[in-house]
Amino acid sequence: MIDYKIVRKRGEKEYHRAVARGRYPYLPALDDLLSMEETVGEEYLGTMEIPVHMIHGTKTAGRKESFSYGFMPLLEPGSEFAAKWVSLYDIQMDTGFTDPVKVYEYMNCFYVAEGNKRVSVMKYLNGDSILADVTRVIPQKTEEKDRMIYYEFLDFYRVTGLYGITFSELGCYKRLAEKFGRDLQTPWPEEAVRLLKTVFVYFGVLFAEKGGGRLDITAADALLIYLSVYSIDSLTCKSPEEIRRRMDKLWKEFRTGVREEAIDIVDTPELSGGTRSSGIFSLFAGSAYSEAKPLRVAFVHEKNAENSSWVYSHELGREYLEERFDGILKTEEFSDCGNDEAVRAAIDRAAEHGDEVIFTTSPALMAETFRSAIHYPKIRFLNCSVKLQHQAVRTYYTRSYEVKFVLGALAACLAENHRIGYRADYPIYGYIANINAFAAGAAMIDPQSRVILTWATKENSDWRRELAEQEVSVISGADMQPLHSTSREYGLYRYEAGEPVNLAVPCWNWGRYYELILRTVMNGTWDGLNAVKRNQAVNYWYGMSSGILDLQLLRDFSPGTRRMVKYLRDGIVSGNVYPFEGELKDRQGRVRQREGRMSNEGIIGMDWLLDNVDGSLPKLEELKSTAKNAVSVSGVIEK
To answer: Residue ranges of the ABC transporter substrate-binding protein PnrA-like domain (predicted)?
Structure first.
């Protein structure tokens, strides 16, 4: 027979520990919580096994002070309560509990209405699950992150009937379903649910054994990271030792986690290695690299420089590096890597050649880039994207919204009917800021301006017709002129006598960007970033002040217009002009920012449009397949 005094002593320790830390020492009561929350009803789910670790408190306030916050008993030995607790312990050890406890589930936590002592016994015994009659209390749907994640869970529960798999970020339930070849609309067959349970339990046990409980992610978060590199089959046929070795390779990713704060946005390069005008040898004095032992760098492109302006611009950057570093650096490129197999083959060849840094120049290549980074931990990998959370792969992108702000202001000067067109491509992180900055620049010059948004990447898109019907003559088109084309529908242009005439264009200096990044490799500061020490993912996000982005006027504008453009451009470079400053409202009239300057995280994560934009973000099913590939990795719309 168990000594109740020992059990109670554990409860007293939990109580005193909570008090010392300023934490509530007793069980939380659901009724207390719901008195401050709005709900939309209840749903009886039936009798089922529920995870013991998800039982957080009691339904009513009457019994909450009988237990510590960890469900250990607090009442005196010799009391009727203590006798019943010991009796229930004996029953569990002898035959096990057969009657279900009664619980209410709210926001993926269970609260006990009947059976608190049985739950306490199971908590003491570190039990995995307990039979329960479950009633769900449904919270009101809001735009708060935890509510949105919970409503995603409800979709997941309806097709699987599973509790215990919890995520920290939006979209993870859908991604998990896709890993198993399923969705969140169609009920899963029994064998698929059984496979998911088997894989999750097996992985969860090994994850906990390795200390996963001390990390800031759930076991489900870690499983999704694991499945982005390794197969589901590996969790059914590989030995525990092999799975542990794979976890070791991924542990930095687990420590980084999945939350937004796990990303460190580096928006200013460190120029400790010298100035841009310095000679190459003064820049890298003391470097481990030389003509005899150059730094080898590979570039992997989704398309090629003959059919893609994007790849062509990055190839110009690569050629700049070869010239700039004058033998201290050697590069090679791999083109037409449009699928995972081609990316993997290119990276394998680069590794065989001894390349130490590999850039993949499209967000669509990120999945295989990450898998390869885990496979080749000594190679430095970077992907041209933003807001992706991997320590093994750094990302780099430009603050293009800065140039768009200036172009929007210029467009407003020229649009006599206050209507300006915007031809957009990909609804991915960072790109929506371009649209909003353009609209903000236009509104600054002309408060009556309207930006008519169209998407060229939608299936059967006829964006020219859409803009013509809106009587738009001034348009922000594709950022670059298509290769082998005489089209003038790029940059900022205006129709004059029925023909497009270019007014201004954004300019990228990818060579300068690559130089700034590779300088940190050569001078030994690559691993010196604070983000590395804090287990954060590194996202480079440089702008006009770094010399990697600018704009060029292509017409002889009036002196006043040219002064305005110069004032805004110079102001952004110096930091005196900021596109997203002061009150900002979206199309629905909601205030997205009341004052001050918007943070980098807020700008990158924009998934809304300013109030002077006429249009909307496309749905995934409306996009062409090429756009879907990019959106699946880095999209801001529901994937």
So the answer is: 296-475
Q: Which DSSP category does 214 fall into?
A: G
- Can you list the domains of the chain with their CATH numbers? 1-140 (3.90.1530.10), 141-258 (no CATH), 289-384 (3.40.50.2300), 401-511+546-634 (3.40.50.2300)
Under 8 Å between Cβ of 504 and 491: yes
pLDDT of residue 273: 42
Exposed/middle/buried for 466, CB within 10 Å: 0-12, 13-18, 19+? middle
| The pLDDT of residue 331 | 98
Contact between 607 and 588 under an 8 Å Cβ cutoff? The reply is no
Q: Is the pLDDT of residue 349 over 90?
A: yes
Residue scoring higher pLDDT (497 or 133): 133
DSSP H stretches of helix in 539-634: 559-574, 600-604, 625-634
pLDDT of residue 147: 95
Per 3-state DSSP, the chain is made up of helix, strand and coil in percentages (nearest 5) of 45, 20, 35
Place of tokens 């059967």: 460
Q: Helix, strand, or coil here: 56?
A: strand
Q: Nearest Cα to 335, choosing from 361, 316, 356?
A: 361
First to last CA, the chain: 55
What's the predicted TM-score (pTM) here?
Answer: 0.83
pLDDT of residue 530: 72
